[in-house]
Amino acid sequence: MHCGSSNTDDSSSIHLQKRQRTDDKIRSATLDLEVLDCPICTEPLIAPIFQCDNGHTVCSICCPKLRNKCPFCALPIGDKRCRAMEKVLNRFLSHALC
Ligand SMILES: [Zn+2]
Ligand SMILES: [Zn+2]
């Protein structure tokens, strides 16, 4: 069966091409995602996102953990929502789903 051996050669070369393409996609996606990660737990931010008076952002899970105190400047955090960031996040998520 010569067909069988030639088939395996084809699939391996195709596999290599696919791998390179996905690597590129992942690289550009992680670049965007890093900005949208919580600096405390490094998990992707999910609305609601909270910010202090200095604009430091923290996710809603970390807010109670930090006792509503900004980890960077010790200002109160948890009262103000970071609407701008939530908008960016929603737009990014809707793009990622498509
Ligand atoms: Zn967090
Ligand atoms: Zn702060």
Automatic annotation (TrEMBL):
Residues 38-73 form the RING-type domain. It holds the Pfam family Sina_RING. Keywords: Metal-binding, Zinc, Zinc-finger. It comes from the Eukaryota. InterPro entries: Sina-like_RING, SINL_plant, Znf_RING, Znf_RING/FYVE/PHD. Residues 1-15 have a biased composition (Polar residues). Residues 1-22 are annotated as: Disordered. Gene3D superfamilies: Zinc/RING finger domain, C3HC4 (zinc finger) (3.30.40.10). This is RING-type domain-containing protein. It comes from Brassica cretica (Mustard).
